[in-house]
């Protein structure tokens, strides 16, 4: 059984150039071609999208870390944009739920429109409040 030599993950300008060259590939294929994958003991290749995306962010020189807040802990700020994840999920992060004062167990009714998602939440009076997430 011949072992395929894994390439060292690209970083910086090399990474940006390679991604531009591979513009017609999916993001998973780009990540793999740039060296962001591992091979399991069973020979299955697994793409590490988080490392790939973080390397792209670093290569672009984008600063995502915010300054520490009053209690000494940093965190993400809301960008008001989300993307569908590779597994098809749409994740609304804690920056938004905290801003809205939501807590674990809060429930929503989901209504799909042509180009939007509408979330309806029950308030304390048992009435529906509407929160709309447009695409």
UniProtKB/TrEMBL annotation:
InterPro entries: AbrB-like, SpoVT-AbrB_dom. Keywords: DNA-binding. Residues 79-124 form the SpoVT-AbrB domain. It comes from the Bacteria. One of its GO terms (cellular component) is protein-DNA complex. The keyword DNA-binding applies. Pfam families: AbrB-like (PF14250). The keyword Hydrolase does not apply. This is AbrB family transcriptional regulator. It comes from Chroogloeocystis siderophila 5.2 s.c.1.
């Amino acid at each position: 059984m011949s072992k395929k030599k894994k390439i060292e993950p690209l970083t910086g300008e090399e990474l940006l150039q390679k991604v531009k060259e591979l513009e017609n590939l999916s993001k998973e294929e780009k990540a793999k071609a740039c060296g962001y994958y591992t091979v399991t003991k069973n020979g299955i290749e697994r793409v590490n999208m988080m490392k790939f995306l973080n390397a792209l962010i670093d290569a672009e020189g984008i600063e995502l870390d915010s300054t520490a807040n009053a209690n000494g802990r940093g965190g993400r700020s809301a960008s008001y944009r989300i993307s569908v994840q590779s597994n098809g999920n749409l994740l609304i992060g804690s920056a938004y739920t905290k801003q809205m004062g939501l807590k674990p167990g809060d429930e929503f009714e989901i209504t799909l429109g042509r180009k939007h998602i509408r979330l309806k939440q029950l308030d304390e009076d048992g009435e529906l409040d509407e929160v709309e997430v447009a695409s």
